[in-house]
Design brief:
heterodimer; A: mainly alpha; MetI-like fold; 14 helices; globular; B: alpha/beta; D-Maltodextrin-Binding Protein, domain 2; 2 domains; five-stranded mixed beta sheet; four-stranded mixed beta sheet
């Protein structure tokens, strides 16, 4: 018994140390955003909170752009992309997992090749397509290239493959058409896969900078990351660390809150696979 | 049937009115980066609103487009996709590259339409800016805000080290001397930003101060990286770190350098004049500014941004864009922007205005920046400017990390740059009859 306890305490200490290291950038951001006049005082790098916290940094950050609008636009993009993706990836995943047609595997691997392309290489061709579709400088233009996702299709195919066929066959015997099988039988069982994909998709599009920057020109259509760039992309001047930290917090806050709120669900989804009992 | 046709007619009419909301008004896109800090984006938005309200013919849609490099990327991608912006505020040294790629248009036809000449138009702009505004003898960019490097120093540290703050170092030798006296504990005598873009610009400043040229101002396919002037500059940086030990080893970004200066961890720093307002607002202890010290001669490169116009827009949009450029580069607009940002105004006449005279009297540091202008030289601009600049920056960064010696670094940088510019050289200077 005793021998077991010592390593456990040691492990806990070690884990706390690693967790602290990992969390220190976030902690610093949190502390710096409440620190008054942190542009260059000697203590600007300190992790020790200031005794007279201020909200001035947040006010300056909020003043520098229409954050309400940015939140709304980002939300529209993220939710819109995810909604369409859920339909496309589950249908494509189903087709690759269950339907038999010539060239299926070749097509699947060709589809996966997409994952190897670096997105910046596609900026100009994608932008031309967006312009041709009359979607330039619109939020649907930002979303369009992501409506089909190779990663999502792969994930859903694997999820469907892991499900036993018995359920579908039972439904088929009862005369259910294919769409009813997908909707009533497969999708409910594949939920963990979809949720895992949703997390990846939402964080990726929430944080994306380059593509929205390329498509959007009017200030009314800008997203959060572009608003944030106003503080962080300065070339010749100095950095206003406090405002920068406050702006960063504002951008990441909704995602962080959502993650903490649904943490259990998320972790379960990643761990959980196949069907329960 | 009749109703159907009527409906169709109404639809066509409403479509037409949607496409031309106001018949006389031309809508144009204006892209701008924010090189210094967030609040400048708001100031620029305010200026554009002011312009839109001041007249009825042109409506400018201003969009903030990230850093200088992001702005170039976005403008070029938009142009390739068939949506060229009308006017872009572009890093002043991208003009050569953008002209060679056919992205920006010559402004000579606009000058002609205004019945003026390039000489007349540029007369009011500081002579040092003319080279970066023109490519192959034609006007391509209108200077909007400009800067040069400047030596900022902590007055209290100077006194404490027994140095006279009214006599800042003027030569490299004096600078090393002062830096040695100023270095103490974890305080560095000297620091300079070494991130991309900034480092290339400062290395140009050092090689110019060392009598060099950095690049061929008249031909976009040549740089002088492995010449004595640059070798000396590179060795100077190397010595500051490893021999005199007055500068920390490794690469520090501009934000880190200004923060170290504010925090009293660096006594002398090389930063842009564009940082003047920021430093004035944030420095708690007394500071002063001086010319960039020289080894052979006083010389600094110009930095900043110019207004350019993109190819592929129609006549109407071009006219509207030019009108906007003229307003944005008017004496009053430039003067106001200069006082707001700390950049110097490219027009000489801006300094004859009473509000500018008052501003300079109140802020003598702005005067030093202005006095250094007669020694300014064009900013580095070649074919593939960014890549050619990075060829040098990568090597100098390796040197600052102690991984390379100066002689080897400049030789490798030259080799890389030559390879990058080779395709251009092949079609120009190496294309023989």
């Amino acid at each position: 018994m005793r021998r077991k306890h010592l390593p456990a305490a040691l492990l806990a200490a070690l884990l706390s140390a690693v967790a602290f290291l990992w969390a220190s950038p976030f902690l610093w951001t949190l502390i710096a955003s409440f620190r008054p006049e942190s542009a260059g005082s000697a203590g600007m790098a300190s992790l020790w909170p200031d005794f007279a916290p201020t909200l001035l940094n947040f006010r300056n950050a909020l003043d520098s752009g229409s954050f309400g609008l940015y939140y709304a636009n980002t939300l529209i993009v993220v939710v819109g992309v995810l909604a369409v993706q859920c339909v496309t990836v589950s249908l494509a995943g189903y087709a690759f997992a269950r339907l038999r047609f010539p060239g299926r595997d070749v097509l699947f691997y060709a589809f996966l090749l997409q994952l190897m392309l670096v997105p910046p290489a596609l900026i100009v061709p994608n932008l031309s397509t967006v312009v041709d579709l009359h979607l330039y400088d619109t939020l649907p233009g930002v979303m369009a290239p992501y409506f089909a996702s190779a990663f999502g299709t792969f994930l859903m195919r694997q999820t469907f493959l892991a499900l036993p066929r018995d359920f579908e066959e039972a439904a088929a015997i009862d005369g259910a058409p294919w769409w009813a099988i997908v909707w009533y039988v497969l999708l409910p069982m594949a939920k963990p896969g979809l949720i895992a994909f949703a997390i990846v998709s939402v964080t990726a599009h929430w944080n994306e900078f380059l593509w929205p920057l390329m498509v959007i020109s009017s200030p009314d259509n800008q997203t959060l990351t572009i608003g944030l760039a106003a503080f962080t992309r300065g070339a010749e001047g100095g950095k206003e660390w406090g405002v920068l930290a406050a702006g960063t917090l504002l951008v990441m806050a909704p995602l962080a809150v959502a993650f903490v709120a649904f943490q259990r669900r998320f972790v379960d989804s990643f761990v959980f696979s196949g069907v329960k009992g | 049937m009749r109703i159907g046709r009527l409906g169709l007619g109404a639809l066509a009419l409403s479509l037409a009115s949607a496409a031309f909301p106001a018949w006389s008004q031309t809508k144009i896109d204006f892209f701008f980066p924010v090189p210094v800090e967030g609040k400048l984006a708001r100031e620029m938005t305010r200026l554009v609103k002011l312009y839109n309200e001041s007249q009825k013919e042109v409506e400018v849609v201003a969009s903030y487009t990230g850093s200088y490099d992001d702005t170039k990327l976005k403008a070029q991608a938009a142009a390739k996709a068939g949506k060229p912006p009308s006017v872009v505020l572009m890093s002043a040294n991208f003009n050569v590259d953008l002209k060679l790629s056919g992205d920006i248009i010559s402004l000579e036809p606009m000058l002609k339409a205004d019945e003026t000449t390039r000489e007349d138009f540029l007369k009011d702009f500081w002579p040092a800016l003319h080279a970066n505004a023109t490519v192959d003898g034609e006007l391509y960019g209108v200077p909007f805000h400009n800067s040069t490097p400047l030596l900022y120093y902590n007055v209290e540290h100077f006194k404490e080290a027994g140095l006279d703050p009214s006599k800042p170092p003027r030569t490299w030798a004096e600078m090393v001397d002062a830096a040695k006296k100023l270095t103490k504990g974890d305080r560095s005598g000297f620091m300079m930003p070494a991130g991309y873009d900034y480092l290339g610009w400062l290395m140009e400043a050092l090689s110019l101060s060392n009598g060099g040229r950095y690049f061929n101002e008249d031909y976009g396919g040549e740089v002088y990286y492995d010449q004595p002037s640059m070798l000396g500059a590179a060795r100077f940086v190397e010595d500051l770190i490893f021999k005199h030990k007055v500068m920390p080893q490794g690469v520090t970004e501009a934000g880190g350098v200004s923060t170290a200066f504010f925090a009293g961890k660096a006594s002398m720093v090389l930063l842009s004049t564009g940082s003047l307002s920021f430093i004035r607002e944030n420095m708690k202890t007394p500071y002063d500014v001086a010319f960039v010290p020289k080894n052979v001669r006083n010389a600094v490169p110009i930095g900043g941004a110019s207004l350019v116009m993109f190819a592929g827009q129609n006549e109407e949009s071009r006219k509207a864009g030019w009108k906007f450029i003229k307003w944005l580069s008017s004496t009053d607009t430039l003067g106001g922007w200069s006082r707001f940002t700390g950049y110097f105004a490219p027009r000489k006449s801006a300094y004859d205005k009473p509000e500018m005279k008052e501003f300079i009297a109140k802020n003598p540091d702005a005067k030093v920046a202005l006095d250094q202008l007669p020694y300014a030289k064009p900013w580095f601009a070649t074919y593939q400017t960014v890549a050619v600049r990075k060829a040098l920056e990568d090597e100098i960064q390796a040197l600052m990390n102690g991984k390379k010696k100066a002689a080897e670094a400049v030789k490798d940088a030259q080799k890389k740059a030559d390879e990058l510019m080779r395709p251009y050289a092949e079609t120009t200077s190496l294309k023989l009859p």
